[in-house]
């Protein structure tokens, strides 16, 4: 009898624990939305999302986050342009070209790359890449180019890891069949294996996009952080994430609410990306 | 054409490895000469931006966060794998929430922690607020790795245990858990890596005071935050490199430990 009660008690604890993640997500939604939505309502969704100026110290203050939305958008495209080709090709190399010995060096390196703190990436880019970009393109060197390369490098491990397992999951028969039909190693991989792993590779890209949009502290160091409409790839910019950190330390009143509202927009973007990711992933499992 | 593809793919792999190698060796070459005993003194002053207080804070926040998150995460997986009907609504809800939690950017965690723990619950910038924020953040990592480990345990082990008259809880703790402990540990170590590298979720919850925390309600800064603050100041470049070296060494140790443990598990599993 005592044993049965103990069983029930522990089961209760397990159920309670599993509710924690649900409660957490509800709390996160409630507090972020509660902090941001009233401001958006008062200021006007259109003015907020499509306002071309962010001037919190003007009177009356102007809170338009279009510059930051575009900043995040463009830098993410840049990161994809840098990270996806290199990442997918590296994953292809790892699954179909590398010998065991090279693989045993490459794989742990990629794992370590994923573990390097974002601040270390940011600092490295600030001290090494920013001066190079400054010399080549002029200006401060803190711009879309530097930031795109930074984020492209930072999403490499995500893209490589997931693409690699997608490529490895393609049945051997596909490759062998293609070889048997007389195709070369390379064209079998490009025309047969990669198309078969398409949804897995897509999933890796979407996850990479999510990481790029969410990255904050490394980006702050190399983006220049000017809150104005993007003026070209050699000019500084501000993203949604860096907008929050840049201003939060001194913001108060509506300014602070505007920053929380920025987080609401960021949060919704991430939820959309996450939704697309689940759909693609489900398709790749099929 | 084939040749071109072949070369492009090899170049890409070489490039990835070179980027990794260059970043790591650059930080080491620049940082190691700047690692002095002075940097490991107990007091932080504006002349001597000592790392030691931040290192101690980092260790404290790792321990506390794991104490909070590991049992919750592991118990969640126990429920998901050992009790719940895999098709039930609750299970799919938990699955969606953990996936969403994993996708939320750390700055959103930081803001949430600030709004909820720091302001609403009145914890102020404190070790407690930082710990609780990070606990939610690493929960998905622990749940996912534990769940995978539990699912890999052969069902006949459970049946054998039940047949011998053991209850469910006893089976979980005496049969299944010991088999999984290594891969659960590997997941826990991975989440340590996440905590060590975290900055955005901590800057508005733990705060940035460069002193050893004196209690749950005292503010501090972790090593990664320390490096961020040094690099925004731009006067302590040498010390930033040194901090980078320490961070990299910690991450390398964590990674090799996690690989070693999961490899050992692989042998045991067979």
TrEMBL record, chain A:
GO terms for biological process: phosphate ion transport. Its main location: membrane. Keywords: Cell membrane, Membrane, Phosphate transport, Transmembrane, Transmembrane helix, Transport. GO terms for molecular function: phosphate transmembrane transporter activity. It is found in: Cell membrane. Pfam families: BPD_transp_1 (PF00528). The chain crosses the membrane at residues 12-33, 62-89, 110-132, 144-162, 201-223, 258-280. CDD domains: TM_PBP2 (cd06261). Residues 69-277 form the ABC transmembrane type-1 domain. It is a multi-pass membrane protein. One of its GO terms (cellular component) is plasma membrane. Belongs to the binding-protein-dependent transport system permease family. CysTW subfamily. NCBIfam families: phosphate_pstC. Part of the binding-protein-dependent transport system for phosphate; probably responsible for the translocation of the substrate across the membrane. This is Phosphate transport system permease protein. The gene is pstC.
UniProtKB/TrEMBL annotation, chain B:
Belongs to the binding-protein-dependent transport system permease family. CysTW subfamily. This is Phosphate transport system permease protein PstA. It is found in: Cell membrane. Residues 55-258 form the ABC transmembrane type-1 domain. InterPro entries: MetI-like, MetI-like_sf, Phosphate_PstA. It comes from the Bacteria. GO terms for cellular component: plasma membrane. One of its GO terms (biological process) is phosphate ion transmembrane transport. It comes from Tissierella creatinophila DSM 6911. It is a multi-pass membrane protein. The chain crosses the membrane at residues 7-29, 49-81, 101-119, 175-196, 241-261. Keywords: Cell membrane, Membrane, Transmembrane, Transmembrane helix, Transport. SUPFAM superfamilies: MetI-like. Pfam families: BPD_transp_1. The keyword Transmembrane helix applies. The keyword ATP-binding does not apply. One of its GO terms (molecular function) is phosphate transmembrane transporter activity.
């Amino acid at each position: 009898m005592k044993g049965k009660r103990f069983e029930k008690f522990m089961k209760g604890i397990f159920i309670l624990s599993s509710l924690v993640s649900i409660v957490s997500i509800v709390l996160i939604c409630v507090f972020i939305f509660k902090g941001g939505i009233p401001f958006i309502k008062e200021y006007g969704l259109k003015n907020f999302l499509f306002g071309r100026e962010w001037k919190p110290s003007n009177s009356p203050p102007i809170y338009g986050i279009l510059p930051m939305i575009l900043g995040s958008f463009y830098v993410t495209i840049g990161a994809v342009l840098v990270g996806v080709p290199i990442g997918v090709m590296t994953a292809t190399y790892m699954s179909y070209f590398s010998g065991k010995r090279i693989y045993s060096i490459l794989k742990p390196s990629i794992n370590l790359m994923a573990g390097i703190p974002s601040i270390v990436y940011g600092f490295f880019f600030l001290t090494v890449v920013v001066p190079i970009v400054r010399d080549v393109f002029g200006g401060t060197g803190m711009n879309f180019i530097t930031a795109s390369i930074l984020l492209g490098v930072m999403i490499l491990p995500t893209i490589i890891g997931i693409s690699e397992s997608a490529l490895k999951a393609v049945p051997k028969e596909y490759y062998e069949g293609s070889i048997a039909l007389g195709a070369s190693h390379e064209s079998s991989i490009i025309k047969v294996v990669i198309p078969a792993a398409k949804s897995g590779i897509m999933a890796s890209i979407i996850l990479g996009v999510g990481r790029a949009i969410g990255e904050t502290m490394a980006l702050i160091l190399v983006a220049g952080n000017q809150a104005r409409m993007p003026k070209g790839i050699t000019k500084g910019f501000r993203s949604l994430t860096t907008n929050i950190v840049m201003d939060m330390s001194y913001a108060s009143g509506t300014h602070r609410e505007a920053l929380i509202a920025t987080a609401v927009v960021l949060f919704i973007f991430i939820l959309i990306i996450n939704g697309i990711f689940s759909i693609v992933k489900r398709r790749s499992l099929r | 054409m084939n040749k071109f593809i072949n070369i492009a793919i090899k170049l890409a792999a070489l490039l990835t490895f070179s980027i990794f190698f260059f970043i790591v060796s650059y930080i080491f070459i620049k940082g190691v000469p700047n690692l002095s005993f002075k940097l490991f003194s107990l007091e932080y002053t504006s002349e001597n931006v000592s790392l030691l207080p931040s290192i101690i804070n980092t260790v404290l926040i790792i321990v506390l966060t794991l104490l909070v998150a590991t049992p919750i995460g592991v118990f969640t997986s126990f429920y998901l794998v050992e009790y719940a009907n895999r098709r039930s609504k609750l299970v799919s809800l938990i699955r969606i929430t953990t996936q969403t939690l994993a996708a939320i950017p750390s700055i959103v965690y930081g803001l949430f922690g600030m709004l909820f723990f720091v302001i609403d619950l009145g914890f102020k910038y404190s070790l407690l607020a930082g710990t609780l924020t990070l606990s939610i953040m690493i929960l998905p990592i622990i749940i996912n790795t534990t769940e995978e480990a539990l699912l890999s345990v052969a069902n006949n082990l459970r049946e054998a245990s039940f047949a011998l008259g053991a209850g469910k809880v006893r089976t979980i703790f005496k049969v299944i858990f010991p088999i999984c402990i290594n891969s659960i540990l590997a997941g826990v170590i991975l989440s340590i890596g996440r905590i060590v590298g975290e900055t955005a979720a901590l800057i508005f919850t733990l705060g940035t005071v460069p002193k050893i925390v004196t209690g749950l309600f005292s503010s501090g800064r972790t090593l990664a935050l320390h490096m961020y603050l040094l690099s925004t100041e731009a006067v302590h470049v040498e010390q930033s490199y040194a901090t980078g070296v320490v961070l990299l060494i910690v991450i390398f140790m964590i990674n090799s430990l996690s690989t070693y443990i999961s490899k050992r598990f692989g042998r045991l599993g067979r």
